[in-house]
Amino acid sequence: MSEPLNAAEIFGEDVFNDTVMKEYLPKNIYKRLRKTIDEGKELDPVVAEVVAGAMKDWAVKKGATHYTHWFQPLTGVTAEKHDSFISAPDAQGKVLMEFSGKELIKGEPDASSFPSGGLRATFEARGYTAWDCTSPAFVRHDAAGAILCIPTAFCSYTGEALDKKTPLLRSMEAINTQALRLLRLFGNTTSKKVTPSAGPEQEYFIVDREKYLQRKDLIYTGRTLFGAMPPKGQELDDHYFGAIQERVAAFMKEVNEELWKLGVTAKTQHNEVAPAQHELAPIYAEVNVAVDNNQLVMETLKKVAYRQGLTCLLHEKPFAGVNGSGKHNNWSIVTDDGINLTDPGKNPHDNIQFLLVLACILKAVDTHADLLRESAADVGNDHRLGANEAPPAIISIFLGEQLEDVLTQLIETGTATSSKQGEILATGVKTLPDFRKDATDRNRTSPFAFTGNKFEFRMVGSSDSIASPNTVLNAIVAEAFAEACDELEKAEDFETAVHDLIKKYVIEHQRIVFNGNGYSDEWVKEAERRGLPNIKSMVDAIPSLTTDKAVELFAKFNIFTRTELESRAEIQYEAYAKAINIEARTAIDMAGKQLIPAALHYTKSLADTVIALKAADADATAAKKILDEATALVLDAQKALELLEKVTDEGASMEEGREQAVYYRDEVKGAMDALRAPIDKLEMIVDKEFWPMPSYGDLIFEV
Ligand code: ADP
Ligand code: MG
Q1: Nearest atom within ligand 1 for CA of residue 281
Q2: pTM score of the predicted model
Q3: Within 6 Å (CB) of ligand 1, which residues are found?
Q4: What is the pLDDT of residues 78-108, one digit of tens each?
Q5: How far does the centroid of ligand 1 lie from the alpha carbon of residue 330, in Å?
Q6: Separation CA 436–CA 423 (nearest Å)
Q7: HEC readout, 188-237
């Protein structure tokens, strides 16, 4: 048995949190910093100077030698540039540990190497990182030693956002302002701030590192480009919630320890549906903190796996034929005094404020379904959304029996007078307690589900940042709140006006509500009839960023300018083409240098066997049959390889942009699949001794 962890003792020990601030900062400085953090008051340079000194003293005590502005460029992963605390040597050759307010507030990484979608040319490479004091700084320990990480936003010289954090913070301001307006209408005079919260459930795969290193596809692309299905897949459902095996349990323990020290509330862990697939969920937090924490979760999963001779795969579809990985984004809106606007309470029909919030969310999601879909688009996620696995690419909202019933009453009779209540669930076993069921069952096929007191957006990809989905959610709901408030603030009779507005929104947007099976073909047809968009690929999702409707929405709340949106669309097209190009080149490399040669070695040995059998006057028909079959497949593979080489070269020679991305999706992806087919068949007949890399079975059943 390994040492038990004392979570209470280690939690947050590497975070510059409120307790540390109180201890290290003079009282007045602490108070002023809190005002900035809690109320968004501007930060005084004098305060920053003192905070910087305190942060440095604290970090140095923890062994830190360097600091970094930790930011989230549009690559989707975090970036950092390390600077040490040392000052220039004095006359005696001694150095001091220094860190100024200026260094805390502003950094200047060379922005030219990060994607900007034409926002600035390389000769105007200035980009600034700015301290986001609403997300706490932390000290990270790794092989490089200890380093003080300061969460920051990343902007260009002219103020355009070059990252995922800046728009997120802007969207939080938008929903705060509009939600407060809405609350005031209902007579709330006490809540000072409304914040969206998120709890992302992170799925991932764990494989053995030695085996991983034998697969170029996993190394270069994060997913397998070849691989025949093993005799057993996930059909028995015996992995889901199954007992966690020792090696993975040890891994999870170290992950928890690391995350708890960093103040990340790792809470739930379990096996997922596919073999070797697992999940980690934190306790929900304010979205900007949740976004940073999720980045830390992903980094920590990778780092700890590496240390333990394992590899963590965050790709959305590492293995064909078994489930891929997503990241359910649970989202709610809560006031500083603890009112959850997305909680209906026991009697939703009586809770007019909740019904208005709900109606606004229906309107927001229906109006901007395309944007929400886009926010979950990444290259890997194309293997999940709209492919043959969960969730579907069509956005709809699951409300459940109770709320659906309330809305039906509203539509049919104009008023809702009752709420269905959960019944007592009799277990039928005397020794087990009977308990009250939730008023609503769950629907696992819905991309956007109401789950009691929050909404669960299930489309997000496992490797993606949750910043974009939350930015979009905040923005579209802020817009709906704003439009509702515009109406209601001028109403003479508020009671009647709010009632009419709820009814109007619900009727206008009821098409977005769907409680049935989201995986069925009937739903695809029904959704089409309802006029709901079914956006099957990332390339098709990107245009929704720059529609007039999107530009207007984001401009209204100063979240994105048209230029910023256009640049983001450019970046997405480029990212898509580049990722598929790498996959294609990797497939070419593996097929040409490893897999086809392996098959040829095998055919050679089969030919030798045929000759030897014939010489011994034995029956060579069986050997000859396999030889012919293998030879035919190698020929198919060669042909497919040639075509893939041709289309990949063609794609690479095209100008970057939408057309190139479309070409990669339509031509290159198909050519990759055509190469994979004969090779996967070859894997099934070639002697395992000859096959140059671990099989699916080796990878997912023998961790
Ligand atoms: P599931 O049953 O879908 O696996 P859980 O009920 O365990 O999920 O919760 C999943 C996530 O939802 C957790 O990260 C949890 O902290 C988060 N969550 C719970 N309540 C809220 C809320 N009000 N707002 C946002 N996230 C929440
Ligand atoms: Mg979930």
Answers
A1: 14
A2: 0.94
A3: 197-199, 201, 268, 281-284, 328, 330-332, 340, 453-454
A4: 888 888 999 888 899 898 889 999 999 888 7
A5: 6
A6: 6
A7: CCCCCCEEEEEEEEEEEEEEEHHHHCCCHHHHHHCCCCCCCCCCCCCCCC
